[in-house]
Amino acid sequence: MRSFEELVAEAESADVTGWGFGWLDGRATEERPPWGYARLLADRLAQVQSALDIDTGGGEVVAEAPALPATMVVTEGWPPNAERARRLLGSRGVHVVETDGGRLPFSDSSFELVTARHPVRPDWAEIRRVLQPGGRYFAQHVGPASAFELIEHFLGTLTDERRARDPEHEVAAAVAHGLEVASLQRARCRMEFHDVGAVVWILRKCVWWVPDFSVASHEGPLRELDAQMRSGHPFVAHSTRHLIDARRPAD
């Protein structure tokens, strides 16, 4: 294995825009939820005339769908990701809208289908508003304490934060805002990191995991991980996910 300094330097210079994780191939693995969100999303997109994908990242998941509806819109709040989504999806007629986390810039009842893979924070009132009566919200959300083994290695125990993103609370919020939840599925998936560069890269990409992360300010915990992985033991964490299928009732 290359030196700590070489692995870190490579990870610090690597591109982290978009929502693809190919850079981690051979360096880290993450078990996937059993339901296969990208396939299920593609099936649904092929059956509607209008759809909105919220917090699309670089548009990678939408791009996997072989067929898109006549009206396909995606939103993204980070300009580099929005530009990446335009490059990836523009030729297929997808409209990319940059948002600031506030009210969705669409008229009431605009879409048959609203989707999201790992939305920053589901705004149930806005989701219901832009859905047509009888329309569906279909999304894979990040669950509680996802990757917290890694996050707490740098930040210490986060008792209150572990309670966030509870799927039952999200279902209750959706119902309170006038949606009917048809199904909820959950998964806990094993993650393995095999070199310190993979850790640096993922913390640069998922900046909310360890706010203000830098190699200089977190060198001690990074070297601890490096020593563990050099001894032949990957660092193990677990991601949590839940799949929500909800409907706006017909008026």
From TrEMBL:
One of its GO terms (molecular function) is S-adenosylmethionine-dependent methyltransferase activity. SUPFAM superfamilies: S-adenosyl-L-methionine-dependent methyltransferases. Residues 52-138 form the Methyltransferase type domain. Pfam families: Methyltransf_11 (PF08241). Gene3D superfamilies: Vaccinia Virus protein VP39 (3.40.50.150). This is Methyltransferase type 11 domain-containing protein. It comes from Terrabacter aerolatus.
